[in-house]
Design goal:
single chain, alpha+beta, 4-stranded antiparallel beta sheet, 7 helices, 10 strands, disordered C terminus, lyase, DNA damage, Endonuclease 8-like 2, phosphoprotein, FPG_cat
Length: 319
Amino acid sequence: MPEGPSVRKFQLLASRFVGQVVAKVGGSTRKINVDDLKSSRLQDAQVHGKNLFLAFVAAGCPLGPSTDNPVLQGEAASGTSSPAQVCAPQTHPQEEELQELQCSRPDVPGGPGSWLRVHFGLFGSIRANEFSRASQANKRGDWKDPAPRLVLHFESGGFLVFYNCRMQWCSSPVADPTCDILSAEFHRGRALDALRAPRPVCYTLLDQRYFSGLGNIIKNEILYLAKIHPLTQGSLLAPSDLEHLLDCAVQFSSDWLQSKLRDEGLHFQIYQKEQCPLGHAVMKGTFGPSGGYKRLTWWCPQCQPAVLSGVGEPTTVTE
């Protein structure tokens, strides 16, 4: 699943076309009426956690910040849009997937004056001025190029292509930048309070209410960097260990974003590895809250030893 750094890069690709008018549309999506986008102007591109929001206005509207437009003003800036129109992840589930994929209220009519919310699922992506080509034959032996969900051709001649993503209209991108690990407004105190809870830290790290944009890859890598066993309860960790884990989360996410902007790969130390960098055998398990979504987790038992509880026993988790 594309995580915060990937979606930030997608935003930069889309931002190149801000101010341009959509001349032609295409794609296989049935979630929205693509014709609603014809002759509209891309007014803004924002990212919140793992969601990309694109604002469209009528082509005749003057170019400027989306919140200056009478159709969009107030809602995006203050979060005061009608409750029946707000498009935002639910906050009550503890599951990363539900928090990211569901909206708390129904969609609004699409077209100029609305925001298009894009979620990239497990394999979604955006390309600018190029189409994705098949890298290998499918199960039938055909070399068939991936089918785009949406293609936006702009009057300038450039185009954006969206693959394997979910789209829906909403009135405004309601999100709290203080929970976004890549935001300058990220609230460390609130994140630390969440990590101190008596629950496995690998659960808390995927809670998008406190770590928006942090996904399974980041979770695995930063737990290894911080030398913390994934099932360790946060309440058993020293404050300095929690601070270090949070530092790793912010730094790793920032480094990953910078490597993506340079079109460079990032070498993972534990994710999907059989050995850690020190040569120790890596273990793999599927962990998640009871009744919730389970995620694959890799850890090194030697570098990330289990933390003993107050009675001298390793912490345990009821699945």
